[in-house]
UniProtKB/TrEMBL annotation:
GO terms for molecular function: rRNA binding; structural constituent of ribosome. One of its GO terms (biological process) is translation. This is Large ribosomal subunit protein uL23. Gene3D superfamilies: 3.30.70.330. NCBIfam families: PRK05738.2-4. The gene is rplW.
Length: 99
């Protein structure tokens, strides 16, 4: 596995209606590095957002979609998504405020 640092683990937040509704339960959704483990994701969230404490992490591996352009067929890149559950006494993540 590549040498993945904590600041390379979280790529970007996922902003959808479903993920916004889950924020009321302190669940936040991120696109993460495909080789990141649950422990690495929890450590990255706690280091990048001070005052947060991770209760659990759920991950999903998503295959790339098949795309066509004329006769040539290819696939988009594989991605990995993580849903991070924070503890009840943890602070909220500020990048999601005001959305």
């Amino acid at each position: 596995m590549a040498n993945v640092q904590y600041y390379d683990v979280i790529l970007k937040p996922v902003i959808t209606e479903k993920s916004m509704d889950a924020m009321a339960e302190k669940k936040y959704t991120f696109l993460v590095h495909p080789e990141a483990t649950k422990n690495m994701i929890a450590e990255a969230v706690e280091k990048m957002f001070p005052g947060t404490k991770v209760a659990k992490v759920n991950t999903m591996n998503l295959d790339g979609k098949t795309k066509r352009r004329g006769r040539s067929v290819g696939k988009t890149a594989k991605t990995k998504k993580a849903i991070v559950q924070l503890t009840a006494e943890s602070e909220d993540i500020q990048i999601f405020e005001g959305l």
